[in-house]
Amino acid sequence: MVKCIISDKAVLTQKSDGLLFFVHENFSFKKEFVDVAKLYFPHLETLFKTNKFEGKLGQRVSVQGSSKEGIKHLLFVGLGSKKKTAKYMELEDFRRILGASMRWAETVKISSLACEVPATAVYGHGTEFMVRTMTTTFLMAEYQFDDFISNDAKVHKLDQIIFVAPKKDDKAAHEGARVGTIIAEAVNRSRHWVDLPANVITPPELAKRAKKLAKDHNLEITVFDEKEIEKLGMGGIKAVGMGSQHDAQLVIMQYTAKKKNAPTLALVGKGITFDSGGLNLKPTGFMETMKVDMTGAAAVINAIAALSQLKPDINVVVLAPLAENMVSGNANHPGDIIRFYNGKTAVVGNTDAEGRLVLADALAYASKHFTPTAMIDVATLTGAVSHAVGPFFSGVLTQDDDLAQRVQQAGETSGDATWRLPMIDRYKVMVKSDIADINNDGKSKYYAGPTNGACFLSHFVGETPWVHVDIAAAADEVPDTPYYRGIGATGVGTRLLIDFVMQWK
Ligand code: BES
Ligand code: MN
Ligand code: ZN
Known about the structure:
alpha/beta, Aminopeptidase, 2 domains, binds ligand BES, binds manganese (II) ion
């Protein structure tokens, strides 16, 4: 993993073989770049002109210069200009610029990269936050799922990145790098678990990894196996796991704050290690990527690991119901009627709507045993959310405006952006059934797939304030976001949950 270092010496004097310069639109060459030109590349101004480099958002010019120390690779990237309507520039644009800069650094094969930390006036955040964001983003950009590829296909990796911040901000910058690293490690571990295929990550294997993490971070952990799940009356998890040769599991982890009477937040994550659809089998083209269906479980488990290091004054409890949704002579049938932990019953109208079945038991268990102040679930619940919000967002469904606001805020600060979708009582009729309390399929004439899922889940949260985040759209293969690689898992939800908890007041 690349090392992040703090320095107060100007970027142009850094010994790194790579220097990255952030350039605002309408910059003054005389004021800002004369010294850079003198030191490394005399024709820099001409280069800018022939490339029409004006510091516009996304514009880039790179050049190989030289100095007494050796070859210097310089990259100039445009940050754009503030819109008339906006107080600050958009942070997500900056994250993407960092990602693209990392891709450049890999291509030119530098070992060290130095860049300045933008001042508060640019993005509206101080040095600690900016260094945290830069650290997390660069470390995420570095991640590659390369367990199964031979050496020559692995990308070049940097040794270090130097963040230049004013001396007075030294402490804040170090804290930012510390926190940013903890977050990135959690996100990248989530991505790795999601990227590992379903023949490696089975429910028991995922539970084993959760146990290892709990041990490393002094977290309490309980894992119920399939027998215990059945005994407890968790008919949803049981039904979904029935068709698989691998036992379903319910992972419960706890972080206890030092502070007495701290509020408790419950984080619940969908952990389907593979979703074939069950007897309502998914067709070719829809099943191949379904190892992503445990993204929610990876997010909650890795978020609590990060939180145990960040030590908020909040108690955190994590529940991850794990199962593999398969076809076999033991699989549950469309039309089966099952009973959940809270006593409610449902018709399994469609075995492919399995996420809500496993979450139902976990939500019911969490609200009964931990009486949390609030509960949030993250789940790759519907394909429909992709059509609603596209790959840059997760859908937020709740009837609690305060929670919606908190999730929205955490989405902006963390980078796991969210968008609220409709959730009202009048839609709850869509999950009603004539032969059981509810139906997991919903009535198709209402469309609104993500809302349908949320209406089903609302039967299992009791009086607990609750928000559902449908992360299916952003879980993998997110395009045009260079801090991902365009392929593989994003670990979506991990950053979101960490900020959601850390910002709780
Ligand atoms: N795991 C899928 C949702 C999904 C789709 C996640 C694409 C990631 C990418 C979920 O279990 C599912 O199959 N949902 C059904 C629900 C329907 C049967 C009510 C869907 O979206 O079609
Ligand atoms: Mn499914
Ligand atoms: Zn699923």
